[in-house]
Design goal:
The structure is a single chain. This protein has about 200 residues and is α/β, with parallel strands linked by helices. The protein folds into two domains: about 120 residues, 3-Layer(aba) Sandwich (Rossmann fold), CATH 3.40.50.300; about 80 residues, no CATH class. It has a five-stranded parallel beta sheet with strand order 2-5-1-6-7. Strands 3-4 form a two-stranded antiparallel sheet. Helix 1 crosses helix 9 and helix 2 packs across helix 3.
Length: about 200
């Protein structure tokens, strides 16, 4: 079974997906980390992202590995985050990574999260969730993770949303047929419980 979790930046996709996977005993695939891996390798080897995407083997883990080695926290640096956003805008890189993601999801039980998951990567997933929250709440959560100023995070988030919505993608709109889950007023346990219930209903 595949549980697909999509939604805008700061909606809590990664935290929720990890918790749901743990609750269900499924594996977790963070597709955003794969774009980070490509951005990291492209920068380290001074090659184009497309070449990097074709030349490395990414295994989802945990932990995620690149050619058998775990990059660890180097995937989460500001420069890699910025690079990953640019990499994700390259349709040729997306094509390579989407194919790899589909290969991974073809075997076993997965909770997969990231952009375009419900529409491109796993449109036939048994459970498809559109996870969202108010713009301010999303910014507050991201600010809390880094001890940053909410106003500055909100401004950066608006730029990120605008960038992510480009390149012919539709990353801020609920995919047709998915279940919308607004987490603004919900804690993590409540969100996980609702998704687990949807999984149980899909299984029955």
């Amino acid at each position: 079974m595949v549980v697909a979790i999509d939604g805008p930046a700061g909606a809590g996709k990664s935290t929720t997906a990890k918790a749901v996977a743990s609750e269900l005993g499924f594996r977790h695939l963070d597709t955003g980390a794969m774009y980070r891996a490509v951005a990291l390798v492209a920068a380290e080897r001074a090659i184009e992202p497309l070449e990097a995407s074709k030349s490395i083997l990414i295994e989802p883990g945990p932990p995620l590995t690149i050619d058998g080695a775990a990059p660890g926290e180097s995937l989460r640096t500001a420069s890699v985050t910025e690079g990953a956003s640019r990499v994700a805008g390259d349709p040729e890189v997306r094509k390579v990574l989407v194919e790899r993601q589909r290969q991974i999801l073809a075997d076993g039980d997965w909770v997969v999260e990231g952009r375009d998951i419900c529409t491109v990567v796993a449109p036939d997933a048994e459970v498809r969730i559109w996870l969202t929250a108010s713009e301010l709440e999303r910014a507050k959560r991201r600010a809390g993770e880094s001890d940053a100023d909410v106003a500055s995070v909100l401004e950066a988030q608006k730029l990120r949303d605008s960038a992510d919505q480009g390149f012919g993608r539709s990353t801020l709109d609920k995919p047709e047929g998915s279940v919308s889950l607004d987490t603004t007023e919900l804690d993590l346990d409540q969100v996980v419980a609702q998704i687990v219930q949807l999984v149980e209903e899909a299984r029955s």
